[in-house]
Amino acid sequence: MNAATYVRARRACAFFFAGPGLAYGAFTARMPALKAQVGANDAHIGLILLCFGISGLAGLLLAPWLVSKVGSRVLLCAATLCYLIFLPLCALTATVQGLAALGALVGLGVGLADVAMNTQGIQLEHRAGRRCMSLLHACYSLGGLLGSLGGAVFAALQLGVWPNLASLAVLYGLGLPLAARGLAPDSLVQRPDSAARQGALALPLFVWCCGIMALACYAVEGSVAEWGSLLLYTAKGASEQTAALVFGIFSTAMLCCRFCGDALRARLGDFPLGLAGALLACVGMSCVIFAPWPGLCLCGYAAMGLGLGPLVPMLFSRAGDCPGVAPSAASAVISVMGYSGALFFPPSLGGLALHYGLEHALLLILGLCVFIASGTWLLRAKAR
Known about the structure:
Layout: H1 3-29, H2 31-38, H3 42-70, H4 72-89, H5 96-128, H6 133-156, H7 161-174, H8 176-182, H9 186-189, H10 193-196, H11 205-234, H12 240-243, H13 246-259, H14 261-268, H15 270-290, H16 294-308, H17 311-320, H18 327-356, H19 358-361, H20 363-375
Helix pairs in contact: 1-4, 1-5, 1-6, 1-7, 1-8, 3-4, 3-5, 3-18, 4-5, 4-7, 5-18, 6-7, 6-13, 6-17, 11-16, 11-17, 11-18, 11-20, 13-16, 14-15, 15-16, 15-20, 17-18
């Protein structure tokens, strides 16, 4: 692959990686307005988000089979159209049931796109002989940040949900035909049919270990999103405004690290970078739990974002490097296990916090950071 072809393919992949982040960021940012629109209560919102999450998980499970049938290029374009079409329709429904159904369709499209875009990214690394997964995942994070900021701007201007979601879908959709032409043809993306159809149980143990580590990484990230601001506000004496900065600081640090993650991998190697990042996350989480000052806790969350930033893209890349493993199968395992960690693990901290206090409950997150650090020994072997 020459340099011009590689740059074009990388730009196309980056475009598609940003899309699910944009959709999710905008959908969650306008949730208060959507709640008022359909007259929902908190329980209804929980049900709507659950429908989004479960349908996304179903998309992740279904995607490898679809990739083996139509190829990741076709599936990625179809999944992108799916969430772009149904996302604005969420602004037109007047019932909780309608919003839950449309949210589920958006989640299904995002789940299918997740596996297809990571399949494209893994194969691009194989064809080009260069690392780019960290940059691609940075574009996903950037998409989520832009979607949230866009929602905040529309809300501040007191504009409705429809112009917000419709303008996002139209503007992003305009770039879809050009980006689609930059994706690798399906004949170059797919492995042999026997590999594409391989069952999950036939995958090498290394792929499953990468999936377990991804589960731990996503669980830690989910705990920051769901419990970080509450910890600073209730246990550290921070103001509500200061506590609200937690996930933004964490995400910004992660985004910055991912933009330079590929260069760091080439310079340092996977194992040293992964171990250093995981140890930095351990230090950051220790500051969050034991430091009494909100400012130092925010620094701890920034350290966690920097440390965890390169790990998940690295796990996708290394799982896809396994000989004889279809990129779609490797991508699905990492996505499903990681998504499960984010979906199911953080809510379980509520019960522990009720009985032992939130700071003590978060010791479990520190334990996960230690587990991630110990698991980086898997990355010592040279990638294929």
